[in-house]
Each structure stands twice: as structure tokens, then as C-alpha cells.
Amino acid sequence: MSSPTRNPRSTDSALAVAAEDHALVSVPTVERKSGYELSLSPISVATALVIFAIAGFTVVLAGFTVGMIVGVLVAGFAVLLGKALGRMAFETGMSSTITSRFFGFGFMGSSIGSVIFAFMILGFLAMESALLYQGTLLMFDLPDSWPVRILLYGLMTLAWIALAVFGLKLALRASAALTVVTLLVTIYMLIHIYVIQGADPMDVFTYGGVVPGGLWPKFEAAIGVMGATAGTIALVTTDFARYCRTRRDVTVLAASGPITQNVVMTVLGSLVVIGGMPEVIDHLMAHDPELSQEAAGAAGGTFVMENTGAFFVIFAGWMGFVTIYAAQAKAQAINAYSGSLSLVNLIDSLTGWKPGRAAMVVIGNVIALLMIAAGILEQFAAYLAYLGSMTLGMCGVMIADYYLVRRTRYDRATHRVEKWNWAGVITLVLSAAVGTVLMATDVFALGFLVSFALALAAYPALRSLLPEGTGTTFVASEEAVEEAV
């Protein structure tokens, strides 16, 4: 009996479908998944190296108690955002930026959201690669030379492309395995700090932070670092909500990332960072004998945010090195995946050309390398804050359109999509600009929250002045979104 032969064309077709991963079509019902399975995607992002940095730096600034209170508040806010946006993606079956064609921005207007989302997610891709690079240099005592940069960044880029290019299934599988590795080595480091070395965890729980003054300065500092990421995790959640089977699955998915990022990681990040700080301070003083204990402590706090990979390597050696790569590989797969979806919408909405998602994975990684070359790591804190104004402004417009203007009414057969929803575009530009100016001029450090509130309030008013069809035309339903075959 002869064995069946494999059809090469069938294999190629299956790989092509996996690579495209419904980038420009609605996810069919048969491919929908449970919220628990999908939750691996935001959890992967929420346990990344940069989140260790944000959580640890928040506690360094504001202390453990204030950091935890802010973590719970930001988590609650992000869950509400993720659930609100996720329901829209569940209804359309589309990614966050393509969903914005239907709610808030219009077909071509969604390109603005794509630019914001791509800037956000590829910025994280860039920052986290740069953090890994710094940790690798320290681990192997390598010089920061062009040959080393080309080698390390080249290998990392190839790895992120390989993990992201074949769609959701591979990304989730990689995330599951590497999340387990991350948690196991983190637990090992905690045992090393608090059992083997005998550090007292109460020193962490009673830590008061370095920000001087009363409660409000500490609270403002913590919100300023952590709060701007609420829109980020909500938009990442929305990209995967298109795969949910039910609205309950949307809720499970929306809760998983923010709770992990802002509550679990605040506890783990503070235990690791505060507990590992003495070794980092000793390392800094050994390399600079003129550095005082107080100055080394201040430098160590900055080290957490700007050089997290090296921080882990200094106090945990090989285990720290394994941690940073396990934490990053899964998150970078999701970052590259979501970034490619955004770039696909950007090109399609502006030009009508439908690029392959696999090609956009490659282009997204190239953009991330350019951002590294431009020095994004040195502007980390400012990047997070200004990013928050844009992402929360975008979230506010979409939520206002779907819930306040349309009252959650959506029927794909009758829904009309404008080329430009000028009310949404104007609201986004205005709200993001106001929040950015408030922060840039030091008038209000939490300007990104103003951007969100202003978007919610301004969009319904502008929509009444600029109703559907004002200054634009409508696109055919099959042009706005294709049905999956």
C-alpha cells in the first residue's frame, strides 16, 4: 500500500494563510478561541522586561504602598478600556486599527490610529531589544562596537521575525512556554534574595520611595510612570479580542493583561528590584570608587529604568540573563505581531494596496532598529508619557463613538464607513495635543488622563456638528472589510 504524497502547494497555501492570519479580513467563527487561551498574549506583554522596569521604578520612586495602590487603580482603568475596546473588535472580528475604521476614524482616517499604534508597539519592540542588548554586553563583557551591534541586534531581529511571522498560533505557543520559564527563574531569584542571602521582604513592603514630599507627589510620580501604559495594554488586548468566541471571553482577555502588568508585576518587580538593589549599588561603587553610597543608590534607581537588562545580570548572573531573554522573547513576538497588523492597515487604508503581513513583520522590525539608532532608550520616561496622550486619546474617540454616539448599535450589513470621520480625527489631534502640552510645560504631569477625558467629552459634541458624510464620502462595505473564506 503506497503512502499518500504531500501536496507542496497545499503546504505552501497553509503557511501563507498562517502568515496572513486574517490581517485584513474578519476572523471566522470556526477559528474563535477561549479568553483563557488568548490571555497568553497580553500576559506575555505584561511580563516583559520593560514591565519589570516600570513596576520596579514605580516602587523606587513612590514606595511600595503607593505603588500598589496606583497599580490596582491603573489595572482597573485598563480592564475597563480593554473590555470596552475588545467588545468592538469582537463585533467586527478585526484588529484594533481596522476596527477604528468603523468606530471613530473612518477608512482613511484609521491610518492616523495605525501610525500611533505602530509608533507605540514598535517603540516597545525597540526599547526591549535595546535593554536586552545592554544586558548581553554586560554578561559577556563585550564592547559596544558596530560589529557587536550588528551581530546581536541582527540575531534578535531574526528571532522576533521567526516568532511573529506565522501568526497567532505560533505566538501563543511560544508565549506559553516562555511565560513559564520567566516565572520559574523569577521565583528562583526571589528564593536567592530572600532565603539564601537572607534579605528581609519587609524592607520592600515598608519602602517609602525616593520622591520627597507628601502623598500627592509620590502618587503623581507613580501614575506618571505606570498610568500611561493603560492604553497600550488595552490596544494590544483589542488585537486579540477579534478571536474571542463570546463577550465573556472578551472580559477574561481584557482582565488578564492589566492585572498581571499592574498588580502581579508590581509585587514581583518591587521584590526583585528592591531586593537586588544592594548588589547593583556595590557594583556601581566598585566601578567608580569616588561614588558615595547615596549617589550609587540614586544611580541604581535610574539603572532600573534605563538599563534593566544589565540590572538583572549584575545581581543574578546567568539566571538574570536567562530571565531577560525568556521575558523578552515572548513579548517581542506579540509586539512584532501587533505591529505588523497596524502597518497592514496603514498601507491598505492610504493606498488600497494589501501588503502581506509577513512582509510587514520584517518592515516593523527594521523600523524598530531605526528607533534604537535614534536613541529611544534614553528618552524612555518621556516616551511613555507622550505615548499615553496619543493612545488614550485614540481609545477615548473609539469608545465615545461606539458607546455614546452609536449606543452600541452595530450591524455589518448596514454599517456605513466614511473615508474620513473628521470629528474623530479632529478630536484625537486636539486631545493628544492638549495632554502633550500640559506635560511638556510641566503644568500637569498626568496630561495623558486629560487627553482621554477630553476625547470622551469632545467627540460627541463634534459629531453632532459634523455628522456622517460631512466633508467626505463613504466606502463600499466590501472595501471596508473583507469576509474570510
TrEMBL record:
Query: How is it placed in the membrane, per its record?
Result: Multi-pass membrane protein
- Report the transmembrane regions from the record: 48-81, 102-126, 146-168, 175-195, 215-238, 250-274, 309-327, 358-377, 383-404, 420-438, 444-462
- Which top-level group of life is the source organism from? Bacteria
The similarity annotation says:
Belongs to the purine-cytosine permease (2.A.39) family.
Q: Which UniProt keywords apply?
A: Membrane, Transmembrane, Transmembrane helix
Subcellular localization = Membrane
The cross-references to InterPro entries, in alphabetical order and at most eight, read: CodB, Pur-cyt_permease
| Record's protein name | Cytosine permease
User: Which source organism does the UniProt entry give?
Assistant: Streptomyces prasinus
